[in-house]
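pls ignore typos typing on phone
adenosine-5'-triphosphate + seq
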Amino acid sequence: MNTAIVLSELTKTYGTRRGLTELSLQVNPGEVLGYLGPNGAGKSTTIRLMLGLIRPTSGAIRVLGLDPHADAEKVHRRIGYLAGDFLVDGRQRAGECLAFLGNLRGGVPTQRIGELADRLELDLSARIKSLSKGNRQKVGLVQAFMHRPELLILDEPTSGLDPLMQQTFLDMVTEARDHGQTVFMSSHIMSEVESVADRVAIIRDGRLVATDTVAGLRTRSLLQVRIDFAAPVAAEEFAALPGVTDLAVTGTEHGATLTCRLDGSPDALVKAAARHTVTGLHADNQDLEELFHAYYTSEHSAAGARADRVA
Ligand SMILES: Nc1ncnc2c1ncn2[C@@H]1O[C@H](COP(=O)(O)OP(=O)(O)OP(=O)(O)O)[C@@H](O)[C@H]1O
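k done
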């Protein structure tokens, strides 16, 4: 079976503005890939390139084995796409709009549209212009999922959905994967994709900075350590230890508390601490949201510095 999506050394510039820079990424059939990055990172640019709506400045793209620009019609027939700004004629009723789009895709049973609308609590008789942003987003989701496409490309799909509907959407993604469909979904929130994504790709400033499974990303996260001492300790004693960053030592009523982040083996830190009387020890993994923020806020952060480990 063909790889669902292959992006090879993709660069897109808009005049002098950066869109994407030498981005390479593969998405396997049946995989859910979460595509994460802050505003302006290049997520929509990547999606527009994958749909053949714009052309790369250099590099190559294959979607379902086809060139999305040269074979746009064939590719579009086989995918479900939700744009970041899903726009349709607001005078139509939601049901009419979905029936029309279903016919364009070779016919979708009314029952299937009804089932999806019920799950998402979407009123099919409402005129689109009268719907709230979140309800309009639901129309977009139904049209992307209704014909059970081989590949779903979803740009910020949960935008405007309340937490209950976000969960319904995530269930729909899981079911799509169970049916063997491939899902590429962009987001700027880690927690939104971490429960459904097989892999996560993180982009910043148009470049891919990490791709890994959610479990793999967790192993990259640093330990946050707190050690309580019975008497004052000197920060210099710990600052240069291997893997220790963001070190702080504060005096307390009963002695001192050291906090730091730790990358790799705790051995040196534990041995250094053991030269003193330790009254408390606490170590926790940095959560994924924090790791993600470190990736996209600072090139020189601990996690950012490990961004070269692109899987
Ligand atoms: N048509 C355009 N003309 C000029 N610059 C553009 C155009 N489209 C995108 N860009 C620039 O390309 C970069 C990436 O934009 P893109 O919309 O792909 O980001 P994004 O990750 O989707 O952001 P968001 O989360 O805000 O939607 C930005 O710097 C943006 O200003």
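DSSP finds twelve helices and 13 strands in the chain. Residues 299-311 have pLDDT under 50 and may be disordered. more later
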